[in-house]
Design brief:
- The protein contains 7 helices and 10 strands.
- The protein is of the alpha/beta class and 228 residues long.
- InterPro entries: Methyltransf_11, SAM-dependent_MTases_sf.
- It comes from Catenuloplanes atrovinosus.
- GO terms for molecular function: S-adenosylmethionine-dependent methyltransferase activity.
Length: 228
């Protein structure tokens, strides 16, 4: 975020703040003379900073705009009116300010290795079922590629895109996140032909110490507002 102006005295809006850890890091950078407005549609217990409830689609934008910058991580892809929501957020930034939007890329994660039998095919089946479920919820898998086009409509330029992925060993936080997600989607997965036995085998694979899972890529787009 420093590349688009996060610094001492800055005024930033953190959208989709979750437990507030990123907002906390941002507050340390802007210091006592700066300000970070942290919001999320759903409030999470145990947040490390004050996070305010806010729906980027339906609620008015914060009245302390314009901001020096906005950061949003995995907020817009699942919103049917994603373009309008991003334009609302982008419109709160002053001219010369910056925006950072992070979204998941296409479903290209895969099992690099696992001693669990048929792990690669099992994960591929799960990924296919998950994509069908998320698409049914209104998610747009190619959204990350469209972000610069949308931001250009709000007067942004100087785009920079970085793609990041990493390898998660079995039973570590990344794999446990997939365990949690798949556990919460059991009925939806079953409707896609990925049943209880499949979920059990998936969890076994994700928690096996030999497993090495290459995560889906995270696409980070930054831009500067140079016009209206």
């Amino acid at each position: 975020m420093e590349s688009v102006g996060l610094g001492a005295g800055g005024r930033w809006w953190e959208i989709g703040a979750g437990h507030g850890r990123t907002a906390q890091d941002m507050q340390e950078v802007v210091g006592p003379s700066g300000f970070v407005r942290a919001t999320d549609k759903t409030l999470h217990p145990g947040a490390v900073v004050r996070v305010e409830r806010h729906d980027i689609v339906t609620d008015p934008v914060p009245d302390d705009e314009p901001f020096d910058g906005v950061h949003a991580r995995m907020v817009f892809a699942h919103i049917p009116a994603r373009e309008e929501a991003l334009l609302r957020a982008a419109g709160t930034v002053r001219r010369g300010g910056g925006i950072v939007v992070e979204e998941m890329g296409l479903y290209t994660g895969y099992v690099a290795y696992s001693a669990v039998d048929d792990a690669q095919r099992l994960h591929a089946r799960y990924s296919g079922a998950l994509r069908e479920i998320l698409d049914g919820f209104g998610n747009e898998a190619t959204w990350a590629r469209q972000i610069p086009r949308v931001l250009a409509r709000a007067g942004y330029s100087d785009f920079h895109v970085e793609v990041h992925t990493e390898t998660w060993p079995g039973a570590t936080a990344g794999c446990e996140l997939l365990v949690s997600v798949s556990d919460g989607l059991r009925p939806h997965l079953a409707a896609q032909g990925f049943g209880e036995q499949d979920v059990g085998r998936l969890h076994e694979m994700l928690r096996h110490p030999s497993t090495r899972l290459v995560a889906n890529p995270l696409v980070c787009t930054t831009a500067i507002r140079t016009g209206d």
